[in-house]
Amino acid sequence: MLTLAVLISGTGSNLRALLEAASDPDFPARIVVVGADRQADGFAHAEAFGIPTIMVPYSEFASREEWGAELHAQLTVWRPDLVVLSGLMRLLPAAFVDAWAPRLINTHPAYLPEFPGAHGVRDALAAGATQTGASVIVVDGGVDTGPILAQERVDVLPGDTEHTLHERIKPVERRLLIDVVRRIATGDLDLSVYDTH
Ligand code: GRF
Predict the structure, then answer these.
(1) In what order do the strands lie in the sheet with 148-155?
(2) Measured between alpha carbons, how far is 18 from 196 in angstroms, rounded to an integer?
(3) What is the domain class of 107-172 according to CATH?
(4) For residue 10, which atom of ligand 1 is closest to its CA?
(5) pLDDT of residue 33
(6) In this structure, are residues 82 and 94 in contact, taking their beta carbons and an 8 Å threshold?
(7) H or E, element range at 2
């Protein structure tokens, strides 16, 4: 049974989907802890499913590195096989990525390498794209530059706002994420090929 730690910052709708998938006894992975860099609304989903939460408030640390070191120390206690970033709106320090990658994956609401970074949906709209997408990647030292594990195109519709487009992308993200987690858990997807240590 693959054990997961999921890191969020916001509403956690992708987390919710993973919690629901993992509550199926046939799903080969389970979430052991949910973490956030702030008091994230998504903690409510973890609590609804009885999953422990850890909150490491970025604002209380003198540097990204010190915040990352504390997050690493707290995550290590739970010994997750895989760390899933699903709406964590914070760049992780290199030491954290080095400690966890390639057992560290991220979902992104764009068709990488198109529109990386914190505003992928907004950037696709601003660029006048007629298509964007969703991607699941292995986290590396860059910003959304890691190896792509899964991705799928999502149409941009006339009149789309950042919100309507993002809400259409998220269900695709959730489906891709659940499938990637299932494939890692069953050994169908071997992350060790992405190990750069
Ligand atoms: C997702 O689209 C994720 O890829 C991006 O932020 C969004 C989080 O949504 N980083 P939610 O918090 O899961 O609803």
Answers:
(1) 53-55, 29-36, 2-8, 82-85, 104-108, 131-138, 148-155
(2) 28
(3) alpha beta
(4) 12
(5) 98
(6) no
(7) strand 2-8
Q: Which atom of ligand 1 is nearest to the CA of 15?
A: 13
Q: Read off the tokens for 40.
A: 């994230």
Spacing, Cα 14 to ligand 1 middle (Å): 6
pTM over the 0.90 mark: yes
pLDDT at 197: 85
Token couple for 14: 């992708």
Each domain of the chain, given as residue ranges in start order, spans 1-100, 107-172
**107-172 has the same fold as 1-100:** yes
Q: For the domain made up of 1-100, give the CATH fold.
A: Rossmann fold (3.40.50)
Q: What is the pLDDT of residue 196?
A: 85
- Ligand 1 pocket check for 144: Cβ under 6 Å: no
User: Separation of 13 CA from ligand 1 center, angstroms?
Assistant: 7
108 part of the active site:
yes
The predicted-structure confidence for 15-55, as pLDDT tens digits, reads as follows 999 999 999 999 999 999 999 999 999 999 999 999 999 99
Residue 180 clears pLDDT 90, i.e. is over it:
yes
